[in-house]
Amino acid sequence: MNILIMGLDQRPGSALPGRADVIMIASVDPVERRVVLLSIPRDLWVEVPGHGENRINSAYFYGEFEGTQGGGPGLVKRTLEHNFGVTIDYYGTLDFECFKRIVDVLGGITIDVPESIRDDRYPDDTYGYMRIYIPAGRQHMNGETALQYVRARHETSDFSRMRRQQQVLLAVREKALRLDIIFSLPELLPLLGKAFSTDLPPQDVMALANLAAHIELQDTQLRVVDESLTIPYVAPDGAQVLLPRLDRIRAMISHLLDSSPVSEESRLPEVADARILVRADVSRPGLAQEVADLLQRRGYNAWAQGDGIQIESEGTFIASRREMAETAVLLSALLRAGPEFAILDPEVEEGRDIVVTLGRSFVMPR
Description:
The chain is α/β, with parallel strands linked by helices. It folds into 2 domains: 2-256, LCP protein (Aminopeptidase); 271-357, 2-Layer Sandwich (Alpha-Beta Plaits). The protein is 30% helix and 28% strand. It has 10 helices and 19 strands. The strands form 6 sheets. The chain has a 6-stranded mixed sheet, with helices on both faces. Strands 16-15-19-17-18 form a 5-stranded mixed sheet, with helices on one face. Strands 4-5 form a two-stranded antiparallel sheet. The model is unreliable at 259-269 (pLDDT under 50).
């Protein structure tokens, strides 16, 4: 599953759409519990479908301004697919004010700044410039400082800037996990209003939030389209941009990401299509129904077994048909059930795709 993440440079009071100042692809493998974060330079000079050659960050502006299919996110998706052959399944966007609010709600984040940052031409809210300075070392940052850290570029480079963006994203994840906020993500996102947008279904937002809690840092791979994959270039209008080494970037994406289009024949069933039976020990009456109700609210087709059964295991166990394995992993993350899986025998469990057996120590997720 490939998710396009964009940070938008949307100035306060401007009636015009912003541009994508931050462009990342998060490739999530829920079965293997691995993530690849790939950052794309905003000044990459590519072919924007319908608009000729331009910076890749302009695709969002054109898509929003002209109201093309899918708006800004749709045109950025098509631009990535056209140039690099990567299939984007979903997107998420947030503007800078939204980013600052998220960091502040978390009480700030702690970042190890590898080298001091000074930018005498950091953009302010009035289309002018200001000077910023962030010293090297361990720094606790509020939303404003964190935004400066991920945006500053004039005394460093766009490549180091992208690495800082990845560093901050992981710090936000770590702080949200420590505060147990990540599990309330579906309820918090609507509070951000138009500052945040995604086409992920609500049940998938919850499942991915829970999955994030089970992915270890060593299973998160950070990559940047960097100096080895680009060539400095002066555009026809005199702008300093980056030409992509297309063959190298496509090879890297093919190696790192799931970049092949999913055919209808091989597409995994939607979560709502999975028939899920929930059962619990007789000593905990009503628990199976409570969990089934939770899953139904998240968009799953779930029901509880009428009578409890004798369960010896303390841990929760999930069995699924082979083609439903990915949905089973998402379910496990949602229920914080741990990696206990088996392949369901369709002859034994006729009419069911997934069976959730709640262990004796199961605790309802908040």
